[in-house]
Design brief:
Elements lengths: L12 H11 L5 E5 L9 H5 L2 E5 L3 E6 L3 E5 L2 E5 L5 E4 L3 H20 L8 E6 L16 E2 L1 H22 L8 H15 L5 H9 L7 H12 L2 E6 L5 H14 L4 E5 L2 H10 L6 E4 L11 E4 L8 H8 L5 H4 L1 E6 L13 H8 L7 E2 L1 E2 L4 H11 L5 E2 L8 E4 L3 H17 L7 E5 L13 H4 L3 E3 L2 H4 L7 E5 L8 E7 L7 H11 L2 E9 L1 H26 L1
Parallel strand pairs: 3-7, 7-8, 9-13, 9-14, 10-11, 10-12, 12-13, 15-16, 17-22, 18-20, 18-21, 19-20, 21-22
Antiparallel strand pairs: 1-2, 2-3, 4-5, 5-6
Helix pairs in contact: 7-8, 13-17, 13-18
Pfam family, one: NERD
Organism: Actinomadura rubrisoli
Protein name: AAA family ATPase
Length: 538
């Protein structure tokens, strides 16, 4: 069976049962399964649920789960949730069209040898038995009864039927079988491809977690809140949602942070809500707001900034309504002016202090590596398992550019769109960055992160960002480069930000010096990281 396993999202129980039945059958051949394919990638394979390459037949299989019926030429499909869908093109016509397209494609690629191969189709409805109809012959259909008894017999019956209708065909030579499978496999074996896996991971991330719902309920009831959470726990997402909901209650709301890039990102997300979004440098408050929502609050912990913010909220720190989201793990010292006494001052007003413990951004592998090398509490990863984190050894800027170029080519071959890739520079200087030597950079295909780009993040092209600027943002795939050292606290803080940005795939370029430093850090933090990793697997 190709692929060997199903993804967890958007696979109905009926589709899964057919997959398992074919996997466990005694049929001699290979079954290609395409249910993990996005519809837009390959129209042909999106229309063929399964293709069976048998010893003497290529069989296209269409699966229709749930309730299926046909009246007056209109087909109706109903899933378990009660959703209905109608179509004048029934499953038999659909799979027949797909079969002809498949045969034409193979003939175009492999010539006259395909003319000696028998093709056929089979429709399976594992949940219902359709009454006989003029649109199909009995041998081309497998209903609930035959499926539950033995799907192998249904396939063998279809095989005999199609072979009898094409007597001039012959068994498929082994070499042609291999060639056909090699040709078809890239169109079907998308489950392991990086971008397909990333989409599957993200489908669980876009929803609020149960923990976040609980925090929203708490914040709506309390006038003053400081919410703690590590990278990936959804602080920015939750902060924006808090601001939106407070505005729906009729309150004037200011969303504030230090980074102009992050402010641009959130401003776009809150467009149309009448929430004012400003970086601290942009503050120009004429009348105090009813609610102040602060993201990345650790960046604002100086008495000068707190004094300015206090004037922005009605009632000030002592009697005002305000919510702070902060990460004290390894983001508190990035600006070099964090004042612990300033934080203690805000805490003296006795805000409620909930925490976010579940990492809903990073895969288990990324969360583990981030904690193992920085010691930061990255929370319990809930996004699931993903690709392994890749370390690329490099010696100098030229070799780093070459290694990065090879990584980007690999992502392209895995059909990862360029806008889903961000290159994060720990050094943060474009002029000395290994990315500047890339062909894509010379051709203007890499966009540098700015506050304006953040408003359309991730944009339409590959992006480059400093670790400082990308705080609060994320992307599917991240390549971390320009790591000079990881000895100082600031260097570790920047590394923490960089490693925690990807949702699915993380690639890191390391020199011998940095590799040695990372080994020492891993030895120090491995135990705590492993404990968190095991919790994420439960």
């Amino acid at each position: 069976m190709v692929p060997t396993e199903l993804g967890s999202e958007e696979i109905t129980s009926s589709e899964r049962r057919v997959f398992e039945a074919l996997s466990g059958s005694s049929l001699s051949g290979t079954a290609l399964h395409s249910l993990n394919l996005p519809d837009h990638e390959y129209k042909l394979t999106a229309e063929l649920d399964f293709v069976l390459v048998l010893d003497d037949l290529v069989l296209a299989v269409e699966v229709k789960g749930g309730q299926v019926s046909c009246r007056d030429g209109v087909w109706t499909y109903q899933d378990r949730a009660g959703h209905h869908r109608t179509s004048r093109e029934g499953p038999f016509k659909q799979v027949q069209t797909g079969m002809f397209a498949l045969r034409a494609r193979l003939r175009q690629r492999h010539g006259q040898a395909v003319d000696d191969v028998a093709f056929g189709f089979l429709v399976i409805t594992p949940d219902v038995d359709l009454a006989g109809g003029f649109e199909w012959d009995d041998e081309t259909y497998c209903g609930r009864g035959p499926f539950n008894r033995d799907v192998t017999k249904a396939v063998e019956r279809a095989r005999a039927y199609w072979k009898a209708k094409q007597p001039a065909t012959y068994p498929i030579p082994k070499q042609l079988q291999t060639t056909v499978l090699q040709d078809l496999r890239p169109s079907f074996d998308r489950s392991p491809l990086l971008d397909a896996r990333a989409r599957e991971l993200e489908s669980a991330i876009v929803r609020l977690t149960e923990e976040q719902y609980e925090r929203l309920d708490l914040i709506s009831e309390e006038p003053r809140v400081i919410c703690h959470g590590g990278a990936g726990t959804g602080k920015t997402f939750l902060a924006a949602e808090v601001a939106r909901r407070q505005r729906l209650l009729g309150r004037r709301v200011l969303f504030c942070c230090r980074s102009e890039v992050l402010a641009g990102f959130v401003r776009k997300r809150l467009a149309g809500t009448n929430v004012d979004v400003m970086a601290v440098s942009e503050l120009n408050v004429i009348e105090p707001y009813d609610v102040l929502v602060i993201d990345e609050a650790q960046d604002l912990m100086t008495f000068d900034i707190l004094t300015e913010l206090e004037e922005a909220v009605r009632g000030g720190w002592s009697d005002g309504r305000w919510v702070m989201f902060l990460d004290q793990n390894r983001q508190a010292h990035l600006y070099g002016d964090f004042d612990h006494e300033a934080l203690q001052y805000v805490e003296s007003f006795r805000p409620v202090r909930p925490s976010l413990k579940f990492n809903c951004r990073n895969t288990r592998e990324i969360a583990f590596q981030t904690r193992a090398y920085t010691g930061a509490d990255t929370g319990v990863a809930t996004a699931g398992a993903g690709p392994e984190v890749t370390f690329a050894p490099v010696d100098d800027r030229a070799s780093e550019t070459a290694a990065l170029d090879a990584r980007l080519r690999a992502l392209h071959e895995h059909e990862v769109p360029p806008e889903h890739v961000t290159i994060v520079s720990v050094r943060g200087d474009w002029e000395t960055s290994a990315a500047k030597g890339l062909r894509d950079a010379r051709r203007g295909r890499i966009a540098q992160l700015t506050s304006s780009l953040a408003m359309t993040w991730p944009g339409t092209s590959m992006t480059w960002a400093s670790a400082m600027d990308i705080k609060g943002l994320e992307n599917r795939f991240v390549c971390v480069i320009d790591i000079d050292s990881v000895e100082s606290e600031t260097e570790l803080d920047l590394l923490y930000v960089a490693l925690s940005r990807p949702r699915a795939g993380l690639w890191i370029a390391t020199t011998p010096l940095v590799s040695g430093q990372l080994r020492a850090l891993f030895k120090e933090h491995h135990s705590g990281a492993m404990d968190a990793y095991q919790k994420a697997k439960v």
